[in-house]
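Predict the assembly for these two chains.
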Amino acid sequence: MKKKVISMTLAMLMLGTTIAGCGDSGDSTANMTEEEKAAWEEAANDPYGKYPELVTYTTGYNLTAQGADTLAGTAYENDTPSDNAYTRYLKELLNIQNENEFEAQTGDDYNQKVSLAIASQEIPDIMFVQDYSTLVELVESDLVEDLTDVYNNLACDTVKQSYESYGDNNPINTVTFDGKIMAIPKTQLSDGQDFLWLRKDWLENLNLEEPSTLDEMAEVLRAFVNNDPDGDGQANTVGLAALSSVYGDYPNNTFAVDNIFTALGAYPNIWITDDDGNAVYGSIQPEMKDALQLMADWYAEGLIDKEFTTRTNDDIVALISSGQCGAFIGPWWAPFNPAMTSSYADDDAEWINVSAPVGSEGAINAINTKSYGGFVVVRKGYEHPEIAMKIVNVNSEYAMQDTTDAANEIRENQSIAYFNWPLYCQVQPGNNAEIMTQNIEAVINGEAEASTLTTEEMGYYDSIVRFQEAEAAGQKADSADYSQYMSRMVAIHKFQEEPANFLTPSYFETTETMATKWASLEKMELQTVLQIIVGEAEMSSFDEFVESWTSAGGQTITDEINEELSSK
Amino acid sequence: MGQNSKAAARKSSGHAGKEKMMFHLMLLPGMIMLAIFVFVPLFGSIMAFENYSPAKGIFGSKWVGLENFKFIFSLPDSRQVFVNTLVIAFGKLVFNIIIPVLFAILLNEIRVKVFKKTFQTVVYLPHFLSWVVLATVVTNMFSLTGPINSVISALGGDPIQFLADNAWFRKVMVATDVWKEFGYNSVVYLAALTSIDLGLYEAASIDGANRFKQILHITLPSLLPTIVLMTALNLGNILNAGFDQIFNLYNPIVYQTGDIIDTYVYRIGMVERQYSIGTAVGLFKSVISFILIMGANKAAKKFTGSGIF
């Protein structure tokens, strides 16, 4: 209650200042000469137009999970979320400056700040929102500006072409409400399939082959637990690390173990299409039983971390960085996870990504993601809505091709990976990560000139070259360079070499009943799944769960989804 | 002389009035804060009867009457959550009285002043640490490789995952909460102990009562009014099982015994942004607490002759 009042009061104060601000600018337009007016007009209608005077916009700032420590000792030590390589670049290019109403780590932290901003009815001028349901809420509440004209007049070619590369899944369709484009969608790159990440040095210590099937994977885990892989003479290693939420948000949920379920034909936590073409919920299908039985057996044998139910994400990271765990499931970019960087830096760990466990067709069964990964919205009534589009243009196209010193700062910051662009929204074709790797490899192999690389690729290229030089000199490379090398040069190759079977969920969004009942259905599901895995409940409780899930709102939601799908 | 004393009395009462005026003025800033941060937000409770939408605001949102309350009680787990809350809160209520009273009595028996003061300060400390910090300590203490399980293993028992075991979770919650607060809670009883007439003990020892008998027949009865008072005050918290603590220590596997009203509302209200439902639960809790406090106050007045207000 108290917090609400404080935020309300603050919101009122902000409202006051905004009104005052509008008043001022109104006056200034009135006092402008024709030339000045024309200059403002021109800037507003050019994809990269620079404003005659500094324009300040308020926003919410996304920070990466890396932590500010990564800045220490670099030239950017004193950078802040309102004064860093990215914001300085935008200021120089467009004469705009961000003022952050909040700053938070990407993900739940950031989303919570957005929720609070919406609850207080005072959203920043321009902001990034993660969830589709949040976008719908904003549109329905009439809090955001129509961006149709802005998009049509100002979006650069790269942005337009990237959207079109998604074909039927064009993200622009998602943000179109009644024919109006209400947001600029961030494209969700296809992050491919998740892999099993294993300590390569442990595999070598124990003379183990890289696993492929579930049985082979169990064999490796068994050895990791029982055969003292780190050779310190103590039984201090655990099996596979796992999230306490077990699965979900494929593939970008490091430590989630979806792959084990999909290998057995179970697709939990997503809506899949059944044989009759109807959408059904994956977690209540009979295949779940096989997967849960396997999980329960593995847990009982200790192949899965015995304490996974009580560990937070940070706890898992600590477990892996301290060399007590050498196996987890994660995406191609898992080397950026602090678990891997610090185990490389402190424990001399070497990692490898393996295509395991495979399904009945000999490949990993993976789940496709949606084509959008968030949205940029503009506060209704903001006088410079075009700034949002311009920033997206800059970070999707202009900065990529800029080779000046200013862009160099950005390149360096990309490998430090603490700050993001003020609007966390880049628009790229779906397989952009693979394209970048191909371009970088072409330069490394001498098939192309370094000048052909975009600034982003250049940053990665520098990092990879540094890693290779350190390796060649027999020195230990910087852990940030190691991450770039492992993910972009090693892991990503398996997309082509060992392709996965992809299943596309039939539905991604939230229905009306889901908004009120999902928390309790989710609780029911997690509780049953966890209790079966740790052996606290019999497999028969799964049938009870399916029954109560269906009657407690699950059937209503399924009907809503099928209705929505058939009406499309 | 009568005249004089009357005048003196009048004078002194006038003086006292002025002094009281000063006290009231000093209270004013606090009262204003209270009005802004407690009384005004009370109007927000209207949201509990609306289908609140942030954009439409409190006055523009649709009025739905008791729909939100009906919805809460129709949820499949509302009963479970309610029971969990009551059990955990009741456990905390009882042990947060028994342990501090025992501790205060024991501490009072210590003769060496330095030792007594040091001990009191040490047990006082955890009260000042937040649960976010203590959760890490507790998780490590109760983990499979933690000290408690080491002791169990050394004694030949099987290690227990206390925080992932429905048979243990509530007990651990109550125990750790009591551990955190008993030092602080015992202060009030220590103060009450100092006001007991030492003559009583002297008389009792002359009559041949030993230390134990003295505690039983003098100390405890003298503490009773304070105990009743504290119980009555704490009854209002019977629906507050401790969000900070449980939110930082629970996990889905112990939802069955550990999910309380506050954590549940947090998940549906804050994470899924159902403001009206969150408010409805909050209002429901406040009304129950209010009734309990009023009832306890009445009962305290009846049994001990002194209430809180």
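Chain A touches chain B through 39 residues (CB under 8 Å). Chain A has 22 helices and 14 strands.
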